[in-house]
Design a protein that fits this description.
The structure is a homodimer of 194-residue chains.
Chain A: H1 4-10, H2 16-21, E1 27-32, E2 37-39, E3 47-53, E4 55-61, E5 67-74, E6 78-79, H3 82-87, E7 94-97, E8 101-107, H4 108-117, H5 119-145, H6 148-158, H7 160-163, H8 168-175, H9 179-193
Antiparallel strand pairs in A: 1-8, 2-7, 3-6, 3-8, 4-5, 4-7
Helix pairs in contact in A: 4-5, 8-9
The structure holds a DNA duplex (30 and 30 nucleotides).
Chain lengths: 194, 194
DNA sequence: CATGTACATTGATGTATGTTAAGAAATCAA
DNA sequence: TTGATTTCTTAACATACATCAATGTACATG
């Protein structure tokens, strides 16, 4: 359980006086049960979610009805559809809760004012953007080149904590393979190790 | 041939008086022959390249020695390794010229001062970032779900002009398939159309 | 012009991954 | 506890794509 304000203070180094100014109506809290959608395809995304506790996922559904998980968002992660927010276009994605979760909900206006009030917030926001890009680059690089096994190994080393919290078929979906294939990969790995 | 300053004025709406201030030593021009590298793996990327004419590519080489093209950059496009620039880490990527090209070379310092001098530049830079993210999202979505043929069709509709300028094996590399597969996909498409 | 180099095509064959289907194991609800 | 879902595993089979190899084609360069 990670309080949003504490996080901004400790990680983003936002000063207390600024935080107090930021207690606006554009910031709210929300408790959601597992399975709750906070964004659906076709909606224009107007909020960014900070996960205080629990776990969300961002995913798309293709023409054949298959889910493709783009991102997991555990505690202290932000999740939203930046493109939809920025360009004001209907989202291609869904965001829902994989676990019961507590969220801080940031309206766009909140972020704008926070940026103008706090230089530290601005810096941190920039960091998040750049980090997002770095992450997506890695993702592209992995999807374009690596086979099932290396994808799984990379995922394990990057997100060891997530593995234990989500069903395997979701990890498979994130990796761009079928649950059956993932099962085989895992079998191979244990055989060659034990 | 698209002059960098003209581009900033017309597209980014940067005011002339600001542009004049920006004629600093942190901005230079460079003419490169086909095949010239402007970034190599292991280097820390310190520059952003604006393509005035010609065509660059950004790509990685995997453990088996295979190239994977991440991005093409034709006229009026920017290309760099943002993560390397921002985090100051050695790049995983190469950038080289596919055609003889004319570049505007922006040092990081240039961008910083431009942002502080010109609000329009700041806005445009933000737009470029967001656009980059949108582009990468599409890319992930495509790589994770679509088969060879749909990837090719999507590429054609997004970048019809690039298709005619680069060898097919590079397009295959961008799509994450082999040149042979791409050739077969193209054959199928012409057979089913004609 | 001749010759080489890069690129594209095509076919034969191999392989990783998908598909389908069934049953085992785990989780959840009553 | 019991039954009902959901998830995971396993196997047989299908398939898209990769690999390997040969040939064809274009365009460079001497």
């Amino acid at each position: 359980m990670s309080n949003f304000h504490d996080y901004l203070r400790d990680k983003a180094l936002v000063r207390s006086e600024h935080l107090e100014q930021l207690c606006s109506s554009y910031l709210s809290n929300r408790v959601v049960k597992k399975g709750t959608f906070v964004l659906m395809k076709g909606e224009v995304c107007k909020q960014t979610f900070f996960v205080e506790s629990g776990l969300l996922r961002l995913y798309s559904i293709d023409s054949k009805g298959k889910e493709h998980i783009i991102q997991f968002a555990p505690e202290t992660w932000f999740v939203s559809d930046r493109s939809s927010i920025y360009f004001g276009k209907p989202s291609e994605y869904f965001i829902d809760a994989i676990e019961d979760s507590e969220l801080a909900v940031l309206d766009n206006h909140y972020i704008d004012t926070a940026i103008s009030i706090s230089p530290e917030f601005r810096t941190y926001n920039e960091y998040l953007l750049q980090n997002h890009i770095r992450h997506l680059h890695n993702r592209v690089n992995m999807l374009i080149g690596a086979d099932a096994q290396s994808r799984y190994l990379e995922f394990m080393s990057l997100y060891p904590n997530i593995i234990q919290r989500v069903p395997q078929w979701m990890i498979a979906s994130y990796l761009g393979i079928t649950p059956e294939s993932l099962s085989r990969v895992r079998k191979e790995l244990t055989e060659n190790k034990g």
